[in-house]
């Protein structure tokens, strides 16, 4: 990726929401229909070579997966505009890039509730910011009750596709991915939002004004090519990726098969089908591991009978439990089709009689005994898939204007970050809130306590991101300027 010089865009820009609502009253949600030909206004008196299209942005949102989409929707809902939205590709994040073939572990209705939870989404979904949906009273409750069918009538085909599914069951994530693409396009056209393809590389905090100078590395030609801006808020929705570290013991010739590939039946078949007899090791026992085992089993039972699997697990399978009014192990337990397949095929009482019994060999061990388990059982294995969790994608480098590197610590209850603030003498001071920086999504989820077992879990999922950001974004307004 190369750095580009910003070219000052002299296109006129629609007034920000805060101005337009002051001019035209609170009931007008959006004053203009947007399109590529929208007339835009730039206040050239304030535009500086380093400012992008606005002198100071209300927020820079990093990432356009479900979390970034949620953040932009909630900023607009809270009447914070002048948003610079940055993503590598604006293609729905990892769900669309890698998991279209994965069955969801959430019910179809939750994707609809996500897509209709804030007015800017409903307007995006309807394709018309000035249409009927825009005239509804803005609420933070999403849609519900008697008004639901009216409000959904105008939603685009993608939302209708999802609506036609059994709402109480899961669905393939391609439906959710298409929804994300649709919302992305709608939000990109919304006044007050500027989308910039690229990577946010660094941000510098000016502590006296609590503003951030944010650097963007852009690639290719885009209308603005913004590379440096000032902003009051920085919202990190940067996502997480599967971990695939070296094993404590690896026999010669063992290849790592990436989890993203193994979660796609199509890619898995393309890779393995041309090969001769193949043994694949799968490590893990949560959602990803079960789906990989299922994909491999389907392949072996259809087109590749010479495929064998060694399944390495250090704990029994855990299932979500549907209690009266809540779900125990809501985030860590198996759900949906994956849970059903696991019950039918992988449990000690079902595995011996399952069609997959001759194909999958289960190897159990205790945490800490990985090396000896691998030494004993990995020989003769061609590939290993590690389904052992995700880690945060790299964050932009953060520092203060005096050059102090900031190591942000996320608060999973409040959605804010803390950092070690230097005191006046330049020595390390105390932990302070990092002004204007917020997180959301799989990298920065809300922490919840399991109501049945009492352990803590990270609340991960489209609708959970929405619930957290709706709560947290009330505090996003309180930024000193
Ligand atoms: C296999 C799998 C299945 C799942 N199934 C479900 C499900 O059924 N239902 C459900 O509700 N949830 C599900 N989830 C959970 C969750 O919805 C997804 O993990 C989702 O992708 C997380 O969204 P995100 O926006 O946090 O991150 P991502 O989707 O990873 O998006 C992050 C975005 O940020 C961009 N980015 C990162 N750093 C920068 C930077 N410095 N500059 C610019 N751009 C940057 C990336 O390019 C990317 O587009 C699933 C998760 C996994 C792993
Ligand atoms: N739509 C879907 O169906 C779907 C599919 C996949 C993922 N997801 C979502 O994506 C997120 C990540 O899920 P995930 O299943 O990939 O990971 P995860 O929930 O983080 O679970 C990782 C698992 O790997 C185990 N593990 C870690 N190191 C191990 C080792 N060395 N040997 C054996 N086991 C090891 C852990 O066991 P310990 O508990 O012992 O540490 C844990 O069970 C979740 O939010 C999930 O809901 C959804």
TrEMBL record:
Residues 1-32, 122-147 are annotated as: Disordered. InterPro entries: Agnestin_monoxygenase, FAD/NAD-bd_sf, FAD/NAD-binding_dom. SUPFAM superfamilies: FAD/NAD(P)-binding domain (SSF51905). Residues 60-297 form the FAD/NAD(P)-binding domain. It holds the Pfam family Pyr_redox_2. Residues 16-32 have a biased composition (Polar residues). Transmembrane segments: none annotated. This is FAD/NAD(P)-binding domain-containing protein. It comes from Paraconiothyrium brasiliense. The lineage of its organism: Eukaryota, Fungi, Dikarya, Ascomycota, Pezizomycotina.
């Amino acid at each position: 990726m190369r750095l580009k010089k910003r070219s000052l865009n002299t296109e006129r820009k629609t007034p920000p929401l805060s101005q337009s609502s002051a001019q035209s009253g609170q009931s007008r949600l959006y004053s203009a229909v947007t399109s590529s030909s929208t007339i835009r206004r730039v206040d050239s008196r304030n535009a500086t070579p380093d400012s992008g299209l606005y002198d100071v942005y209300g927020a820079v949102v990093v990432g356009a997966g479900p979390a970034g989409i949620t953040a932009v929707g909630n900023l607009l809902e809270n009447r914070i505009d002048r948003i610079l939205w940055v993503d590598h590709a604006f293609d729905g994040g990892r769900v669309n890039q890698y998991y279209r073939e994965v069955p969801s572990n959430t019910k179809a209705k939750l994707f609809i509730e996500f897509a209709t939870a804030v007015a800017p989404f409903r307007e995006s979904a309807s394709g018309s910011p000035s249409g009927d949906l825009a005239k509804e009273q803005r609420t933070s409750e999403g849609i519900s009750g008697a008004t639901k069918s009216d409000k959904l009538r105008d939603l685009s085909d993608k939302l209708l596709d999802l609506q036609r599914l059994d709402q109480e069951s899961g669905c393939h994530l391609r439906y959710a991915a298409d929804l994300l693409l649709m919302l992305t396009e709608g939000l990109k056209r919304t006044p007050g939002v500027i989308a910039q393809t690229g990577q946010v590389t660094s941000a510098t905090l000016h502590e006296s004004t609590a503003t951030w100078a944010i650097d963007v590395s852009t690639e290719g030609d885009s209308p603005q090519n913004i590379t440096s801006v000032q902003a009051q808020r920085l919202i990190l929705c940067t996502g997480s990726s599967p971990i695939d570290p070296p094993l404590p013991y690896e026999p010669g010739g063992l290849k790592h098969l990436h989890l993203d590939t193994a979660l796609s039946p199509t890619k898995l078949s393309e890779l393995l089908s041309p090969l001769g007899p193949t043994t694949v090791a799968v490590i893990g026992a949560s959602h990803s591991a079960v789906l990989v085992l299922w994909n491999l089993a389907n392949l072996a039972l259809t087109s590749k009978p010479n495929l064998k699997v060694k399944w390495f697990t250090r704990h029994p399978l855990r299932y979500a439990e549907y209690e009266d009014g809540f779900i125990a192990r809501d985030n860590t337990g198996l759900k949906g089709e994956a849970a059903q397949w696991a019950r039918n095929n992988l449990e000690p009482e079902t595995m011996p009689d399952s069609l997959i019994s001759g194909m999958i060999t289960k190897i159990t061990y205790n945490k800490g005994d990985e090396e000896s388990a691998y030494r004993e059982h990995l020989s003769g294995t061609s590939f290993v898939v590690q389904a052992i969790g995700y880690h945060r994608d790299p964050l932009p480098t953060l520092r203060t204007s005096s050059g102090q590197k900031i190591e942000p610590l996320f608060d999973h209850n409040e959605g804010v970050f803390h950092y070690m603030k230097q005191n006046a003498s330049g020595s390390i001071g105390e932990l302070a809130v990092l002004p204007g920086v917020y997180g959301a999504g799989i990298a920065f989820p809300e922490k919840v306590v399991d109501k049945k077992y009492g352990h803590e879990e990270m609340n991960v999922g489209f609708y959970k991101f929405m619930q957290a950001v709706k709560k947290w974004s009330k505090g996003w307004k309180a930024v000193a300027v």
